[in-house]
Amino acid sequence: MIEKEDTYVTRWANAKPIYIHEVDATDSAIGYDGFKFFRECRELRVLKLNYCEYFDDEAFRHLAYGRPKNTLNELEIITNGSVSEGIIKWITELKALKRLHLYLLPRIRNRNAFIRQVQLALPQCNITFPESDKFGYGYNVKQYIFSSSLMDDKERSEKIYNTWKNRVFRVEGGKLNGSGIALGRKHLLTAAHMGFKLKERYSLHGTNDVHLSATVEYINRKADVALLKSDELPDTEIERRNLDVGRNYFLMGYPSDVVESAPSISKGIVENFHADQIHLVGSPGARYGYSGGPVFDKGGALTALLVGGRTCLTQDSTFKDMFTQPTQQNNVRLLPMNVIEWAIKTSKSDEDSM
Q1: Backbone phi, then psi, for 18, in 5-degree steps?
Q2: What InterPro entries does the database record attribute to this sequence (predicted)?
Q3: Torsion from C-alpha of 299, 172, 209, 253, nearest 10 degrees
Q4: CA distances from 99 to 70, 135, 168 (A)
């Protein structure tokens, strides 16, 4: 039961009016009991449940019988083997729903019939439910999600490469050349140890003989990341996800020993956490020039940045271990995107990384 309004007001009379507007539960272990905590959310508007395996249709009872039924505007469910046509009973109670995106839900046998039923009950709702061989789209960013489980490594590699090759650039730093990834919002992310100075411009080279320059907006020597900006870079953001130990990944970059106008792609696996418990250790190693290159999961989402070899702990050792002896590096050091985002949000920029 929903708490009565007068009881709620009395109970929280001295609390600040702070409400949860959006929940992104992607890759979480949320289950039926976890949905109970949504019942009293008074301003929940966006709920993303991507790659969550532990709930089924009945979990949505808590949304339909709770306060979110009058506030939830956007709902996204991607890849769940338990959600079936039975979810219609609860979704159609969400009277404020304006956007519903579903993808890779194998227990929903008839997509078209499902869409028709929801549309009749919620005529104001924009529903997208692409077939499993099509790209899916999220809300705030354009997401390139595809049915990677049905592909072999060659097909998956080609799909990722063709999707992101125009976003990967060769970066000319003040000390070294490496790679970088256009994140969106006109920004490019790369490794700081290539040598940058704040507010100075550096050259980027991409596919199809694209040449442009970008200004350094942020440097974090400790995290070994740098953020550059150019109005010529894409504005659409890339989807990001976590990368776990034991998972395969695909690394893209510009190896320095090959003169090409397009990036290369290679496959690896996350072996373990680094001794610092922050970085991930992947194998096999990477060639000189890959540093600063993006790491994608098998679904094509950005998960990490390659910042050096396994033993790299400082600016100098990154250069020594990763570049002067590249053939001896059997592993790579990967910095997860969630760590990078946290570092950028919480740390002031350094003046340089020269």
Answers
A1: -110, 125
A2: LRR_dom_sf, Peptidase_S1_PA
A3: -20
A4: 14, 17, 32
Tokens 């690896």 found at: 268
Neighbours of 328 (CB within 10 A): 9
- pLDDT bin (cut points 50, 70, 90) of residue 167 is very high
d(CA 339, CA 304): 9
Q: What phi and psi, each to the nearest 5 degrees, are found at residue 214?
A: -135, 150
Collapsing DSSP to helix, strand or coil, 27 comes out as: coil
Question: Residue 300 in 3-state DSSP?
Answer: coil
Average pLDDT, the chain: 83
**Token pair for residue 253?**
């970059």
Query: Minimal CA–CA distance to 204: which of 230, 236, 224?
Result: 230
Containing 103, the helix (H) or strand (E) segment is strand 99-103
pLDDT given for residue 260 in this prediction? 64
Res. 325: pLDDT tops 50: no
pLDDT of residue 327: 40
Whole-number Å distance between alpha carbons of 26 and 127: 20
Tabulate helix, strand, coil % of the chain (nearest 5). 25, 30, 45
In the chain, the N- to C-terminal Cα span, in Å, equals: 61
* Predicted local distance difference test score (pLDDT) of residue 284: 79
How far apart (Å, rounded) are the C-alpha atoms in residues 195 and 79? 41
Determine the number of helices (DSSP H) and then strands (DSSP E) in the chain.
Answer: 8, 17
Q: Amino acid letter at 45?
A: R
pLDDT class of 320 with cuts at 50, 70, 90: very low
Contact between residue 214 and residue 204 where contact means Cβ atoms under 8 Å apart: yes
**186 Cα distance to chain centroid:** 17
Short-list 286, 171, 298, 310, CA closest to 227: 171
* Residue 222, pLDDT above cutoff 70: yes
Alpha carbons 25 and 75: distance in angstroms, whole number? 11
Q: How far is CA 108 from the centre of its chain?
A: 26
